[in-house]
Amino acid sequence: MCRTATRRPPRHLRALDTKPARSVVLWLDKADAYLRAADTAGLTRQFAIDVAPLASEPPDEILGRAEALLAWRPPVRLAARAPRLAWIQSLTGGIDQWLVPDYPEGATLTCARGSHRLSMPEHILAALFLVTKSLAPIVLDQRERRWTRRVNPTLAGRTLGILGLGAIGAELARKAAALEMRVIGTKRDGAAVPHVQRVYRPAETDAVLGEADYVVLLLPSTPETRGLIHARSLMRMKRTAYLFNFGRGDLVVEGDLAAAVRTGVIAGAVLDVFVKEPLPAESPLWTTEGVTIFPHVGGLHPDRDDTVAALWVDNLRRFADGQPLREVVDRSRGY
Predict the structure, then answer these.
(1) Which residue among 3, 160, 192, 249 has the highest number of C-beta atoms inside a 10 angstrom radius?
(2) Domain boundaries, given as residue ranges, for the chain
(3) Annotated active-site residue in 296, 304, 317, 331
(4) Overall pTM surpassing 0.70 (yes/no)
């Protein structure tokens, strides 16, 4: 059975005769993939699913009875308004928005870790080709009907440094190795990763910065990683190196990066995430030659809702059965 704060549920869900005793809230605008997944799995017989649009806060009435919540961010005063909440599923892999004091005590937090495993590496590869193959100038040349032949370097033989060898980093390493790139990177436990020539621990980040021709940031936002890339760390990179940030915006001190590219400390950067989004018009990153702005699209793809819905409904089934949930977040670590 499904209820919605603003509209009637689909007919096939309204047709159910029984009224489930357990309640789940979906706080998002496009819920069809999630309702369809829950119905296909037979879970709408066990849970009443309330849908609330993002334009306003979920009503106190539905939060008050909710045992589980699916959302991008926490509603205000969540702990006080949702006393029965036992599980929260974040719609994103990044969870820094959930690291708030008003978090319901005892509620398990899970994230959409892995939902970007294919789309993110492809966007990073696109960024690599963008900076190595002069793609932007080629497109601009066509606009001016200008025939300019350029000699571009190969990615083969170059070193890719990945700071954060999680699911996305491991997939990027596999694809980069197929391009005959040498891959190095960091991982908290230092354990070996397929297709990565050498894995460093976070304390050895400087070694990766110094060796890599391209440095990719795929780290979460934590007290240890915020501001990781600043004026001094940029000085450790090669003058010919590029920085790619597809992790979290606050990993980079943006003013230091703009200055480093402008003065030739590094060759350039491609950025998909920022401290403030949308990126403010007055940010120097917009106008720094050598910096390319992606509008936070690295993880987007047409089937993303279906991918996240599959994870969520698997967790909903586990939640119903009292089984361990997937992709549980350690809030003390920030991921």
Answers:
(1) 160
(2) 2-115+303-321, 119-293
(3) 296
(4) yes
